[in-house]
Amino acid sequence: MIYFLNDYCSGAHPAVMDALVRNNLTLQPGYGLDEFTIEACQLIREKAKTPNAQVHIVAGGTQANALVISSFLKPFESVISCHTGHINVHETGAIEGTGHKVSVRTGENGKLTVEMIESVVAEHTDEHMVRPAMVYISQTTEVGTIYTKEEVMAIREVCDKHGLILYIDGARLASAIAACPEFGYEELGKLAHVFTIGGTKNGALYGEAIVIVDERLQEDFRYYTKHRGALLAKGFVAGIQIGELMKDELYLEIGKHEHRMAEIIAKEAEKANWEFAYPPESNQLFFLMTPEFSEILRENFACSVVEKRQDYDVVRIVTHWASTEEDVEQLLDFINNNRQ
Amino acid sequence: MIYFLNDYCSGAHPAVMDALVRNNLTLQPGYGLDEFTIEACQLIREKAKTPNAQVHIVAGGTQANALVISSFLKPFESVISCHTGHINVHETGAIEGTGHKVSVRTGENGKLTVEMIESVVAEHTDEHMVRPAMVYISQTTEVGTIYTKEEVMAIREVCDKHGLILYIDGARLASAIAACPEFGYEELGKLAHVFTIGGTKNGALYGEAIVIVDERLQEDFRYYTKHRGALLAKGFVAGIQIGELMKDELYLEIGKHEHRMAEIIAKEAEKANWEFAYPPESNQLFFLMTPEFSEILRENFACSVVEKRQDYDVVRIVTHWASTEEDVEQLLDFINNNRQ
Amino acid sequence: MIYFLNDYCSGAHPAVMDALVRNNLTLQPGYGLDEFTIEACQLIREKAKTPNAQVHIVAGGTQANALVISSFLKPFESVISCHTGHINVHETGAIEGTGHKVSVRTGENGKLTVEMIESVVAEHTDEHMVRPAMVYISQTTEVGTIYTKEEVMAIREVCDKHGLILYIDGARLASAIAACPEFGYEELGKLAHVFTIGGTKNGALYGEAIVIVDERLQEDFRYYTKHRGALLAKGFVAGIQIGELMKDELYLEIGKHEHRMAEIIAKEAEKANWEFAYPPESNQLFFLMTPEFSEILRENFACSVVEKRQDYDVVRIVTHWASTEEDVEQLLDFINNNRQ
Amino acid sequence: MIYFLNDYCSGAHPAVMDALVRNNLTLQPGYGLDEFTIEACQLIREKAKTPNAQVHIVAGGTQANALVISSFLKPFESVISCHTGHINVHETGAIEGTGHKVSVRTGENGKLTVEMIESVVAEHTDEHMVRPAMVYISQTTEVGTIYTKEEVMAIREVCDKHGLILYIDGARLASAIAACPEFGYEELGKLAHVFTIGGTKNGALYGEAIVIVDERLQEDFRYYTKHRGALLAKGFVAGIQIGELMKDELYLEIGKHEHRMAEIIAKEAEKANWEFAYPPESNQLFFLMTPEFSEILRENFACSVVEKRQDYDVVRIVTHWASTEEDVEQLLDFINNNRQ
User: Fold this and answer.
1) How far is CA D313 from CA C192, D109, D145, in A?
2) C31: nearest CA in chain A?
3) Mutant choice from A92, A102, A103 vs B, greatest count of B C-beta within 10 A
4) Does the distance separating the beta carbons of A76 and C224 come in below 8 Å?
5) Is pLDDT at D94 greater than 80 in this prediction?
6) Which candidate, B326, B322, B304, B323, places its Cα nearest to that of B313?
7) Contacts of A171 in chain B (CB under 8 A)
8) With contacts defined as CB-CB under 8 Å, which chain C residues touch D90?
9) Which of A4, B80, D240, D274 could form a disulfide with A303 if both were Cys (CB 3.0 to 4.6 A apart)?
10) CA D148/CA D170 separation, integer angstroms
11) Inter-chain contact A130–B96, Cβ cutoff 8 Å?
């Protein structure tokens, strides 16, 4: 079946796999102290124009989030998130598992706003209340939308005003940069105190690079990483992959491909009057469908119902590095031949 | 100044203090294995008509909440609470500090409803999401309202339907029973899997009794208690106090006094057209006032602004065991002489 | 039965109880912001000659230990303790429950030495190992021995050398100062980064004062306290007690009494050739006895077997503020009339 | 330089890499629900003759240990380990980070004995002490030794006697089975309640299979896994690797190769009178050398000093799947030409 189920349904991008095969037999020190990891981290620093940033690579996204949040907060501090944030909804309490509250506000289109942040901060008064100390946003958001550069600049401003750390979860950063090229590595390096560059959903077998821009947050991060069980023995395997994604802008190319595939689908769906549950801005598209129509769709394409809204299914269609033009063609055919 | 600031502003009820003095020199085994604690726990079992319940006494309310919740949940499970719940707002992340998420719904008048619980349960699908496993309600609520017996019966029903533990935080239980006598110890024993009887805010120096009704939850509770630092060396001091409160229905008498004092104030305030922020149902009254009027009030009486609502202060006035009729008279005078 | 079971077997010292009764009806702000607590803390600062120290009062000893240790360590850091340390043996994993390892060395007579600390530090190399960051000693130790001032000076020196925090658990500090007057409040204020003054075992109903001498450790301690459920609503009750103990050197007087009672017993036991399991230096005495003899003793006096050593029981006899000369006389009679 | 540094210094065994390449473009559901993982788990069940075992694959060893231990223990319970156990020494407090104490006994040759376990159990009396509930052993041990089948049978017996869970960490299981073929998959399935089969150190890029034999421990394990950030989005990548290692006994073949390489080295070293720090039983060899000699060795071969013993270095030499006969030849030459 044709897969629009998610963006982690197939292995590594061929170039990444080639790099793994090519370097498979080199001998390397463990735990990310190898030449590949060093090079990958250096490439990231250069792209982000953050010569003093620290870069660490871990296996997965939930792990990265739990590690970052628990390392930079004091026990009684919380992280602010939109209600749709991955750390709030889809991590099975992993953040709370490290002892920290997620301070949630209900937002539109998956986005946190300056007002939402101000509202959490305003509520806090004294030691009887959890103290907000970090802002979490994801780019792209969990519902496929994109923060504009201006939006993030405003968020950073409110963070600076209140002494909050801005953490940008880039699990789907490739797709985000494709959708909004003026908010790329360099802007991330300027606006985030810490951000991630997600490999798993963008052409790697696994691997999320954590970029700690703010030097005050860099101390002892390898201790934190090991303590959370996130220091990989064969760190070089992740280093090879992230390095390959950084070279020749492969990462951005993958994002562009994902984005282009999604754009074609979104346009055709729009023409066919399919209703969007969230604005179509990146490689994740969300449609409102009757359960009957949703079922027919899912008989033909691997995709998922992610939400139930009264009489409608919210169906997610995701394009990924391995999505082909043929896959998209077939979905376009379906769109044109199956009116809701 | 006259104190309507809170219900933990003065020492022990004279009868409780007498008991402490009277028994001060008896020699007792430690850690709650003494005769006073044994008797106090037995009295509670009798009142609640729960002969098989376990009773444990700890020092404070946040401690009791963190202990109960962390002992009965698996690491990946959450407790459902109204957004105004003490565990959500006023415990500085203590619940999350034990690793557990508080699954919050915004409620009216401080109360959780069946619909709110159902909505949390409905949202949960699988292992990618935190699993709700307990319902937390406080009686009285944090905004001074009272659950009716019928409301709690409905909540228990939905708990049974979904396998949720019902935990009722009785930090202000004396006042609650005074307000709603048909929902007393016995009904608590029937409807809650676990509940607390708060001493601190009702005549004791300190001490919260945790009543574990459901036998499946009783195993190893002394281990959990010590592990959380909540097993008191001189447990008998708390035992003496809780025992005294249970004898001759002193606890209920204190609640009645608090309730009567509040009722008089509420009636006069109503007559004077003071606006309530929440329905006046127990010993905590919440008024909407202009900041100017709130300031004048607070120059004359110790009470606090607990919330800011646009152009209004929400001012809390609390009656307690040591509130006197003279105190109340003076407040009535103020009410009648100072029109908002 | 006559109680030599422990030092938390009876209520408050009469002077402390008087203070509680006397001040019972004063109205006070909550959470330790009251005048009694302020005065008690000021008295402590004066005695310790640490004008910039912060003092916080919590209910119990395990709670104090877990709070202090978890507040001052990073998640991946450990606290060094002798194997007999309370935090290692008798807190049911409460320290680990806050996420921290106790790095243990086997010591003699309950004491940690410079060599033991150096050995833990030497073992640590890099981020693959927990990092020792604090030293925990208790004065008196759990086996009734006393650190000399010189020993603690040497420990502090090794702490400074390696950047370790020195935490002295003074649960039985009154008895310790009685035994070793040249190592009193002032010396504690000089040598410890943080120490406690235990009320529970020295005349209070409950209450442990945490004295944070080092200013770098003082930030946000009320947040940490509330987060761990240790901020008492009626903080003034503990404040009254600790204040009373500090006035007129009542605390030291209690210690002297305990010490004198124990000394008399120890001398007589020595004469009668009773064998000590640990050197008799404070109000806790430990004897090696045959199980038969231990049983006879315990039929006559409340005391406990704390350890089994091959053919011997280790029996603990503890004197406390309420131990009377008559109690001691009876024990002396027993000693003289019952040869092992 | 020739690498005897560790067994995670090179990529995947060629057959494993081939499988990754071959299946790279197949489309799979996420989170270990794919056909490869299902097949790999089935193969493990068959080999271990545990048709009802659950198998879960996570990325790393410390992660696997923290996940297993924290999922099966109550908050106040501890895991018993030899002082050399990985969970005690080399996980930066990761186990304590999940709230659990490691109850340690000093052992010989990296092994836990029945006596050591009994001693921990005997020490535990009541709720004032952490309760031992699990036994952790690693096969091979961290110092390269091997438990015999009889030793593990005796350990399991003492576990059953005291209701302890037996957890066998098989990070280096391939080498262990090569050294002790009568204690293979099937025996593990019989004697362990839960064990791991380590991929990272035996031919995979990453991947540790957790085999939960005891059905009482199987409930909700996917929840625990996600909660700890250990559920891999592209689970199929690990599934492919573990599956390939299980097919045609590749895993055992890798172990045999490692073992044979080590055996040759050990024999030659013995002949040359090199002194062993621990008995040479598996692919990790530990030698006592003067610092001078150790330095010369390490100028020629990548290997590490893992311990300092007075005047000696303890040097670890590790063979791995990519160790060649030529590598070993060169080391033999060195041994023969460089007398200590």
Assistant:
1) 37, 17, 19
2) A128
3) A92
4) yes
5) yes
6) B304
7) none
8) 128-129
9) A4
10) 14
11) yes
What pLDDT shows up at residue C340?
Answer: 66
- Mutation choice for D interface testing from B220, B225, B232 by most D CBs within 10 A: B220
Distance, in Å, from the CA atom of D261 to the CA atom of D326, rounded to the nearest integer, reads 10
Q: In Å, how far are C178, D229, D297, D312 from D270, measured between CA atoms?
A: 61, 45, 16, 17
* Nearest CA distance, C171 vs chain A (angstrom): 26
**Alpha carbon of C93 to those of B28, C226, D102: distances in Å?**
26, 20, 9
Within 10 angstroms of residue C22's Cβ, the number of other Cβ atoms is 12
CB contact under 8 A, B76 and D226: yes
Q: Which DSSP helix (H) or strand (E) runs through C306? A: strand C304-309
| Residue keyed to tokens 């991929």 | D199
A150: Cβ–Cβ under 8 A, 6 or more apart, which residues? none
Please report where in the chains the tokens 């509420």 appear, as a residue: B266
Q: How far is A126 from chain B (nearest CA, A)?
A: 9
Chain A, 238 to 277: residues with Cβ < 8 Å from chain D are none
pLDDT of residue A1: 86
pLDDT lower than 70: segments of chain C: 340
Nearest to C99 among D96, D102, D104 (CB): D96
* Encoded amino acid at B301, one letter: F
Q: According to the 3-state scheme, what is the secondary structure of chain B?
A: CEECCCCCCCCCCHHHHHHHHHCCCCCCCCCCCCHHHHHHHHHHHHHHCCCCCEEEEECCHHHHHHHHHHHHCCCCEEEEEECCCHHHHCCCCHHHHCCCCEEEECCCCCCCCHHHHHHHHHHCCCCCCCEEEEEEEECCCCCCCCCCHHHHHHHHHHHHHHCCEEEEECCCHHHHHHHCCCCCHHHHHHHCCEEEEECHHHCCCCCEEEEECCHHHCCCHHHHHHHCCCCCCCHHHHHHHHHHHHHHHHHHHHHHHHHHHHHHHHHHHHHCCCEECCCCCCCEEEEEECHHHHHHHHHHEECEEEEEECCEEEEEEECCCCCCHHHHHHHHHHHHHCCC
- Contacting chains of C (3 CB pairs or more, <8 Å) are A, B, D
Whether residue A311 is predicted with pLDDT greater than 70 in this model: the reply is: yes
| C32 HSE (CA, 13 A, CB side) | 24
Q: Return residues 185-224 of B near A (CB < 8 Å).
A: none
Which tokens in the block code for residue A16?
């990444």
Query: Residue A311: what are its φ and ψ, rounded to 5°?
Result: -90, 5
The Cβ-side half-sphere exposure at C213, using a 13 Å CA radius, reads 23
For strands B194-198 and B208-212, give the pairing: antiparallel
Query: Tens digit of pLDDT for each residue in A60-101?
Result: 999 999 999 999 999 999 999 999 999 999 999 999 999 999
Q: Give the ipTM.
A: 0.96
The two structure tokens encoding residue D157: 């017996």
3-state secondary structure of C3: strand
pLDDT surpassing 80 at residue D67: yes
Residue from the list A127, A131, A226 with its beta carbon closest to the beta carbon of C127: A226
Among residues A187, A192, A104, A124, the alpha carbon closest in space to that of A156 is found at A192
Flag whether residue A131 sits within 8 Å of chain C, measured between CB atoms: yes
Q: Which two tokens stand for residue A76?
A: 């009684």
A99 touches chain B (CB under 8 A): yes
**From the CA of B247, how many Å to the nearest CA of chain C?**
21
User: Scanning every residue of chain A, which has its alpha carbon at the shortest distance from the alpha carbon of B87?
Assistant: A129
pTM of the predicted structure, to 2 decimals: 0.97
CB neighbour list of residue A106: distance below 8 Å, 6 or more residues apart: A82, A83
Residues of C in contact with D98 (CB under 8 A): 99
DSSP A130: P
The confidence score (pLDDT) of residue B340 equals: 66
A 10 A CB-CB count for C302 gives 16
Put simply, the answer to whether B223 touches D76 (Cβ < 8 Å) is yes
